[in-house]
């Protein structure tokens, strides 16, 4: 039976059988790029967001103040440019620009990761900034009142809370990245969308290949969003807490042991 | 008597609004001072200026004779010695009760984890919260939160504690538990500066009462004198209004 004699489902089955290896490879590439770049993007986003929410110290000199201003301006420009232009063009711009201007030929992987990370970082920077601003000012004052400096306040108090608040947004970014890696096909990255183009080009079965690839994309994104939801719930911690007591008779009723000398329940 | 803190010609304005106008007073070691006055008289702003959460517009604040506003003391270092308890508690929401009392000790005072834990547990038991060391702030009542906040401040071994209306955000039945902790603290010799609307506390527990109105200190003296023989008309007005309000309630 030739392809033209098959019905819709037979064609899909045929594609799955014949190209399962390429499809899996493409899906794996897509996922690796999406996950790695979301992580890098978060790191960039946190760094940028932190700088942008830093206020100059009262006593600091004019040089420090203007330096901070310049850095903030550069970061603002970065965020605006990378949020304001299509990633497909950014990919072409960076990939071919590097080759032409600096004679650097990026490998498929490094190009893909560089581009998507920078792009995600620009979005995350705004998210992190919003996350930090959303934390009640009292938290900062509480930390300052016991002598914490800006970095300590951020690391111990503000960022952990901001991270929890922006987890949905990070998950959103991961899902967007899974789908948006498809624009990397412009620089020849062999990910899921590239695989789709190869299959449909070889068999002339656009509809069936598109259906199969869409289903794979959906499985990837849906699984990720469920996992992220689970992580969010984990981050909230248990809804209940154990009362600590040194009364041994109370242990049977579910109370945890409270050790008077060493302290704590562990 | 050893002078701990001295406030001199302190001025604070938000734009054209002068909230503090030439505040002068000093705090000796062991003093328990209540600051009373109507809302908007600048009581909280005064505390926040002392703790440098607000930048004073003018004047000087001396801690052990060193001018903190002129940078003669490291700001963060100074804040560990001048603890603050807030009206809205400001416990760290991401940490449990025990961690709330440990984090400052380990990361600011560089105490060892075990030592910090010991100290935290000691103060948590003093405020009667040792059962709740595993709880997150959101799982506690207002009074419990405030007691943890006091333990957190105490764990930093401060030389003076500032209380910014510590019971104003609490339900009436929880005010007592927090005031009890503060009374015990006062009798243990802790130096305290308390902005409060609890007149009974001001009269019975503190050894000095400062009455503020319109950004100025109107009266400063022993509780007996301020409550029974107020010198200024404004103090009389405030006290009579306050006492009659209480009677109606």
What descriptive keywords fit this protein?
heterodimer; A: 266 residues; mainly alpha; MetI-like fold; two-stranded parallel sheet; 2 strands; 73% helix; disordered C terminus; B: 249 residues; alpha/beta; 6-stranded mixed beta sheet; 4-stranded antiparallel beta sheet; 9 helices; 10 strands; 25% strand; globular
Write a structural description:
- The complex is a heterodimer of chains A (266) and B (249).
- Chain A is 73% helix and 2% strand.
- With 266 residues, chain A is mostly helical.
- Chain A has a single domain, classed as MetI-like fold, CATH 1.10.3720.10.
- Helices cover 39% and strands 25% of the residues of chain B.
- In chain B, strands 6-7-8-3-9-10 form a 6-stranded mixed β-sheet, with helices on both faces. A 4-stranded antiparallel β-sheet of chain B has the order 2-1-4-5, covered by helices on one side.
- In chain B, 50% of the residues are buried.
- At the A-B interface, helix 5, helix 6 and strand 1 of A face helix 2, helix 3, helix 4 and helix 5 of B.
């Amino acid at each position: 039976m030739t392809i033209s004699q098959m019905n819709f489902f037979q064609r899909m089955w045929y594609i799955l059988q014949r190209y399962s290896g390429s499809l899996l490879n493409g899906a794996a590439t897509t996922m690796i790029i999406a996950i790695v770049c979301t992580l890098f993007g978060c790191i960039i986003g946190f760094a940028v967001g932190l700088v942008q929410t830093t206020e100059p110290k009262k006593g600091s000199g004019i040089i420090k103040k203007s330096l901070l201003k310049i850095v903030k301006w550069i970061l603002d420009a970065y965020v605006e440019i990378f949020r304001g232009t299509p990633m497909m063009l950014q990919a072409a711009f960076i990939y071919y620009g590097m080759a032409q201007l600096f004679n650097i030929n990026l490998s498929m992987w490094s190009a893909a990761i560089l581009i998507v990370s920078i792009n995600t970082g620009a979005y995350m920077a705004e998210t992190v900034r919003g996350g930090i601003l959303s934390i009640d000012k009292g938290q900062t004052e509480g930390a300052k009142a016991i002598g914490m400096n800006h970095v300590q306040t951020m690391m111990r108090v503000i960022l952990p809370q901001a991270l929890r608040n922006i987890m949905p947004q990070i998950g959103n970014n991961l899902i967007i990245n899974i789908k948006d890696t498809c624009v990397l096909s412009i620089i020849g990255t062999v990910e899921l969308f590239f695989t789709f183009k190869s299959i449909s080009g070889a068999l002339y079965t656009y509809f069936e290949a598109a259906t199969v690839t869409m289903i794979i994309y959906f499985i990837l994104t849906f699984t990720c969003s469920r996992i992220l939801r689970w992580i969010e719930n984990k981050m909230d911690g248990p809804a209940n807490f154990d009362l600590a007591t040194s009364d041994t008779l109370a242990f049977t009723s579910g109370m945890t042991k409270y050790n008077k000398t060493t302290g704590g329940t562990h | 008597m050893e002078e701990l803190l001295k406030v001199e010609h302190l001025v604070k304005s938000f734009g054209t609004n002068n909230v503090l106008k030439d505040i002068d007073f000093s705090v000796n070691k062991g003093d328990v001072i209540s600051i009373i006055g109507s809302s908007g008289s600048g009581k909280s702003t005064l505390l926040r200026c002392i703790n440098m959460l607000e930048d004073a517009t003018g004047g000087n604040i001396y801690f052990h004779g060193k001018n903190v506003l002129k940078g003669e003391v490291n700001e963060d270092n100074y804040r560990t010695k001048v603890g603050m308890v807030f009206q809205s508690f400001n416990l760290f929401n991401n940490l449990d009760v025990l961690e709330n009392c440990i984090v400052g000790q380990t990361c600011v005072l560089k105490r060892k984890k075990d030592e910090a834990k010991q100290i935290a547990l000691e103060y948590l038991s003093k405020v009667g919260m040792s059962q709740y060391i595993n709880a997150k702030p959101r799982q506690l009542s207002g009074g419990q939160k405030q007691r943890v906040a006091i333990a957190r401040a105490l764990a930093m071994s401060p030389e003076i504690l500032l209380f910014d209306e510590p019971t104003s955000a609490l339900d009436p039945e929880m005010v007592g538990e927090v005031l009890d902790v503060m009374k015990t603290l006062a009798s243990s010799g802790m130096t305290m500066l308390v902005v409060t609307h609890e007149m009974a506390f001001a009269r019975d527990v503190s050894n000095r009462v400062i009455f503020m109105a319109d950004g100025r200190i109107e009266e400063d003296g022993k509780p007996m004198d301020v409550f029974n023989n107020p010198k200024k008309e404004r103090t009389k007005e405030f006290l009579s209004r306050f006492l009659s309000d209480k009677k109606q309630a």
